[in-house]
Every structure is written in structure tokens, then in C-alpha cells.
Amino acid sequence: MTGPHDLVDKVLAELPAWLPAQRWFGGKDRPVSAVRPLRTGVLSAADPLLVHLVVEVAQADRREPYQLLVTDRVDNYDATTDPELAGRLLDLIAENASVDGLVFEHEPDVRVQTGLRGRPITSEQSNTSLVFGSQYILKLFRKLTLGENPDLVLQRALHRVGCEHIAQPLGSITGSLDGQTTTVGMLQQFLPDAVDGWAMATTSVRDLMAEGDLHADEVGGDFAGEAQRLGQAVATVHADLQRALGSAYADDEDIDRTVRAMVTRLDSVVESVPELAPYVPALREAFEQARDTPGEIAVQHIHGDLHLGQVLRTVHGWLLIDFEGEPGAPIAERTALRSPLRDVAGMLRSFDYAAHQLLVGQPEDHQLAVRALEWARRNRAAFTEGYAEAAASSVGDPRGRGHLLRAFELDKAVYEVAYEYANRPEWLTVPLSSIARITGEGTR
Ligand SMILES: Nc1ncnc2c1ncn2[C@@H]1O[C@H](COP(=O)(O)OP(=O)(O)O)[C@@H](O)[C@H]1O
Ligand SMILES: O=P(O)(O)O[C@H]1O[C@H](CO)[C@@H](O[C@H]2O[C@H](CO)[C@@H](O)[C@H](O)[C@H]2O)[C@H](O)[C@H]1O
Predict the structure, then answer these.
(1) 78 DSSP 8-state letter
(2) pTM for this one?
(3) What three-state secondary structure class fits 361?
(4) What pLDDT is recorded for position 124?
């Protein structure tokens, strides 16, 4: 290997086979037909080589930009697995450096420490995050969104109004893509003592399932108190987003567009996942009923993909992370003003997921299925209660908005069907069985 261009050629040849094996790759549902470079930035020209690469991945009629950081120093060329090379990215942010078209910046009034090594975190995720010491976490977005990423925009806005339920934004990496200044990385305060909501919730479900005779409120690992506090935190973040970026009311056209978008998504998902077909009539009816929601529907910037894996419990309370929205949704949709009930619906779905994922691949067990439902009902109610308490004077109580909330929940479940089909086919039964339950078209 002689220089950056040879390295890039070698990597490009291997990408069609390598990409589908990466957890963060969002296109596992169809083969990669071609990969072409969109931009190359040489961060180090020798010993070792370090090249920032944005490629366009073609799959049938889909074309999407993905970010890679490649080196000749590790076998698979993925420089994010090399602690020292990862550390160089942090150093560049600390120095407010510009290298070959990439701009590394720390937030004003923030001093970033240099000389730290970075280690990738290994949880289920759509991007690659590197942790430095116990202070910093740097997210490298994998599938790129042209323009500023909403994750950075919303968290900066929340920080400006003093929101207590996010990790402090500390810096960013941007580059030009298709003529637009595009966020490729985001540095944040790392919370080393944090436990994510999914881990806590699934531990609680396991505790309940292990108890033959006790109910959800009687076992040691009851989660309802946390679920209620989490509801309060989410409502507070919604109120903070309103304060920071404003809000509006949806008109009839907006509501019509929302319903049509849900139906369009359903039609597209059922094309690739025929298991969804039996539920289509009931789903369409539920989406149409969203038009009957009484009173005005407030819209604002929201999290957009809220679930238990996006919330961290620290000693000081709950934090929300990852304001990027659904990785599969178009950017115009992700940055539009939307009802905060979508986030409530996302979290309600997640309680359902936490309760039912333990049943995946297990033989049918009526007793366990009853316990899963009991856990989900208790925690969904506690979350909604907490949300309503904190939202009373700002965003509003989600109860009494039944049709809309139900439509959003089902729309999210349809999204999850597509997500699981493309990423974790063995989990497809989780959203499918929820759709069956919510629409009354099945029992499990
Ligand atoms: N500020 C933070 N402090 C501690 N852990 C974090 C922080 N931000 C993210 N994480 C951990 O990293 C994981 C992935 O972060 P996330 O922003 O959800 O990335 P992705 O967009 O790849 O899903 C989270 O599930 C969480 O475990
Ligand atoms: O966290 P991401 O932005 O990567 O979100 C995507 O992946 C999530 C899974 O990691 C997926 O969430 C679904 O599974 C979760 C359990 O793993 C569950 O808590 C969520 O309720 C469920 O939607 C998310 O939909 C997807 O966008």
C-alpha cells in the first residue's frame, strides 16, 4: 500500500461485502449493488494513513451517503476501532482544526482535553460512538443527513435554554456534502454512571417473569416509579423544546398530510413484509380515526425516535439522547414540527417491546404472556401519568387524545416492522404481535 488513494481503492472494493455485516448499516434488506466515493479527506497521509471517506451506497433504486474513517493500520480498515486514531479526532476538535475540508470545532466556552484514547461502544446502534476516558463521547454519524443533523441542532437549542435532561453538547465535526455544510460528528459529555432505560426495564421484566406468584407491583424490580419519573422528564424536554424553538397548531391540511403519510408508510412496508397484510384494513381505519381528535393539535420540534434505549438514568435523573429522529425517515419529516404525542407513543411502544422481547423464540407460554401484558400496562400507565403531571401547564395531557395517540402508536409499530425486517428479522414478531393486540386482530 503506498498512499491514500490506493487505500481508498482497496476499501471501495471490499465495501459491498463488508457493509451489510455492520450493525449500523441501515440497508440489510437488499444487496449492495455499487459503492462510489462522494468525498475523500486525508487526515494523515502516512504512518499510519487516516482517510475520511463519504461513499454513496447503491441498493436497487436507493442511493444513500455513508461515512467511513479508514486506515491501513487495522485489518478491516475501520479506523474507529483504533484507540489512538480515534484520539486524534478528539485532539482535532480540541484544536478547532480544519483538515482537507473537514471542520473540527468545540462549542464556545468549552475546553476539550487532548491526548485521550477512544474506544467504540458496543451497544445496538445506528451510528458509531467513541468514548474518551470518562468525559467524552463522540458520535460519528454513519448514514449522513445532508445539512445540520437534528441531533446537534436540537441538543444545542436545549442546552441554550438550560435543559436538565440532556448531556451537554461539546463539539462537532462538519464537512461539505453536495454543497451543504453537513454534520458528520457530535461530541458530548459522557455520563459514565448512566444505565440505559432498556437495560433497566428488561431487568425489571425478567424479575417479574422469574416470580411465580407475585404481581408487577410486588416484585423488587418494579419499574413503575422510574417510568413515572421518565414521563416527567420527557414532558419537561418537550416544554424546553417549545421554549427554545417555538410551537404552532396543526391545521386540517397538516392533519390530512399526517394521515396520508401513515397510510403511505403502511403501503410501502406491507410490500416488503407480507406478514403485515392481515392488519392493513384495521390499521388504515385507525389512521383515519386520527382526524377525529377533539380540540387543537399542538406541533413543535420533538425527539422523533424516542424509546427506552434513548434514555439514560443517572444519579441525577433521566436524560434523553439521540435526537436524530428515525434513521429511516426522510429529513424533511424529521425536522418538521410534529405532535409531541409521537414521542409519547414511541415510549409506550417501548414498554411493550421490553415486556415482550423475552418471549421471542420461546415456546408459547400463557402465564408469561399474561405477565408481559401486566408489566407493559402498569409501566405505560405510570409513564403517561408522569408525563401528564409535568405537561399540565405546557404541552398538555396525552390522555383524552386517544385516537391520535393510538394512530401514532400503530404508525410507530409499522415503522418497527420495517426496522426489524431490515435489521433483526428474529424480532419481527414483537411489533407484529403488538399490532395484532392493539387492533384487536389477534390475542398475543
Ligand atoms: N452522553 C452519554 N453518556 C453515556 N452513554 C451514552 C451517552 N450518549 C450515548 N450513550 C450510549 O451510547 C449508545 C448509543 O448512543 P446513541 O446516541 O443512541 O447512538 P445511535 O445514534 O448510534 O443509536 C446509547 O444507547 C448509550 O448507551
Ligand atoms: O436507537 P436508534 O436510533 O438506532 O433506533 C433504531 O434502533 C432501535 C433498536 O436499537 C429501534 O427500537 C426498537 O427496539 C428497541 C429495543 O431494542 C425498543 O426499545 C424500541 O421501542 C423499538 O422501536 C428503533 O425503532 C430504531 O429507529
Answers:
(1) B
(2) 0.92
(3) coil
(4) 61
